[in-house]
Write a structure and sequence with these properties.
126 residues; mainly alpha
Length: 126
Amino acid sequence: MREGTEKFLTKAARAVATAERLLAEGAVDLAAGRAYYGMMYAAKALLNEKGVRHHTHAGVRAALEVHWTTPGALDRKFLLWLQEADARRRCDGVDHAGWVLDDVNRLVERAREFLTAALRHAGMAK
């Protein structure tokens, strides 16, 4: 595993766990934001494994497509989920006020699955 990957995976796991806790507490808008960032950190971990770093969300999504989904190493659904969550995040603004409970439940489930896939590809899956 490359240096820095574990840091991104730890941040992803913390974001997803926080999203799950916030969702359980009824803070739907905050849970949406944490789930999105859980996926973003997982994507950054995957890119780091390829020696690629991007600082913008658009750069991360584009690089994920080139370095992970095009070669078929990662199911394309993860890229589509990240794109969908980002588009929704940008439409709803910083506070994610437009999210509803069913949407956020699905987003948190997807973030957990994305994290699991990233851990597996980084050789950290249990």
